[in-house]
Specification:
The protein is mostly beta strands and 573 residues long. The protein has 5 domains: 31 residues; 162 residues, no CATH class; 112 residues, Jelly Rolls, CATH 2.60.120; 93 residues, no CATH class; 114 residues, Immunoglobulins (Immunoglobulin-like), CATH 2.60.40. 11% of the residues lie in helices and 42% in strands. The strands form 10 sheets. It has a 10-stranded mixed sheet with strand order 1-4-7-22-25-28-31-33-38-39, with no helix packed on it. The protein has a 7-stranded parallel sheet with strand order 2-5-8-23-26-29-32, with no helix packed on it. Strands 3-6-9-24-27-30 form a 6-stranded parallel sheet, with no helix packed on it. The longest helix has 38 residues. It starts with a helix and ends with a helix.
Length: 573
Amino acid sequence: MSGRSATILTLILIASVCVSCIQASAEDAELVIDSDVTWESNEVIDGAIRISDGGSLTISGIDVSVASGSSIVVDNGGSLIVEDSHIAATSPPTGITSYGYWDEGKRGSFRVPSDGLDGGFSLTIHSVGGASYYGSQAFVGDAEPISMNGTEHTFDFPDTVEGEIWIGLIGYGFSSVSISSVSVDTGTAQFAIDGIDLDSVNMMAAGDQGFEISISGHMAIDDSVIEGGGISLGEYGSLDSDGGTFDRVGPIQISSDGASIDLYGESVFVDSLDDHDIRGTPHCDIRWADSVIGSGDSERSGGLTDRWERMVVDQRLTFDAVGVVFEIDGMGPDEGTSFQSFSDSEGVGIVDGGGERTVQIRWSDGTWWNESAIINIVSYRTGWNPEGSGIDDYGGDSIPLTWNQEQKVDQFVPDVEWDSIQIVGEGEASTSQSVAVLAEFANRGSAAASFYITCDIVETGMQADIGGFQGVVVGAGESTEIQFGWRGGEVGTFSIDCEILTPTQLVDDGSFGGGSMTAGPVVWVEPTEDEGLPMTPILVALAVGVGIVSLWAYRKASSIEEDQFEDDELDEY
């Protein structure tokens, strides 16, 4: 190969690589809107659109077709405005599913599509996503239930159907039963109907939504339809709807307490994919005007789809101590759930295993349910309230469980502080003596505490001789004082620093108060001779003692001799 040929080949290879890079970049790129943009002719979205801070996209008076897997992301500071338009997924959810109820009044049912059929036929139902019908049962009219299995089931109708026939469905263990489509075979013709197009009651839409709109900025909908795609609100996200239609869009997901949704005018939800139109956090802002129609108002849902549910997830209780045993009563819509757990090494107790839990429901008829669960302390013992101390468990009882993701349980605990500590006297003493120390404490908490103090010599770091640990009991909201002796060990000027000993069970040593305070100084001097006991009084006392003992011995001996003399005289007779 000549040098010229080699050069040309090299250029061709480089060009091929560059083309490949450009194609890959185009496939992976997203359309970023960072200024004011308006669409006024029909559009197709196939990929990702991001409306950044300062950008705005207005969709006005057009139809927008959105390919499967596409997305619109509205960043904080960006806005999406949809007016008099229709945004529809090319692949919207087409199935239906039951709510999981067994009783006949709430059982999911669909009408057999027999209109215009003469003679017998078979009808096969197909599940959504290949779910198994294992354990499910079907009620065909008033006949006995039929057991089902597999991902499809066929019903045979050998004769012409007169009137309407409804098939009710119940799932294993109160699970839902889905229908992606039904296929009808007359023997001479076959046709299929999507589940969403069947006449049904007590059913909701099922399947995968075709696209996603994620809002951390602002979205406004005015007399427009969003069909077959999901909408989620993140932190700072807001959605206003004046006459918007949400067809197979619900539940709108709100993942931040800082997000808000405002529905008014003739806004309407149709065929939400869960048993509520909005899934919100405990404290997000949800406004639903009286004119708004929910999925629960439709015949298909039978009133079983709620307007919204507020959820709390990964909820935790925090305590000042490890090993606190607690229980929670009245969780969930049935208010009968009871749960028991304990705080870990960081003082954290997970509520209900950290799972998602409903704390509020706005029913389809506009009425409310709010969770009002209670925390009860089973055992909350530390070194300041041990068993046998006469002090109850800390933490209290019947504590309302809030809807916050994290709740501090700090009721009925002590809060002990030093008021003062001082040396009683002139501040000078012999090393052979002790000085009195007066310490005062205040408990500004709501529970009593039984604790000890210890003291160290400031100048040496050695433990001070105060006669061992000094115990103190302080009631809730009370103050008390103790006096103890400090005995010096060596000549010099020294102070003592005294510390409240806090329980080892505490996550933070300062949780119940405590701390230290310094007293002194005290000047310690050598003992003097006159500090011994005076000798004269001692000698006098010894002399008196010896005299008393001698007198007692003499009298005792005399008494014995008299008795002996009397006995001898009697013997002579």
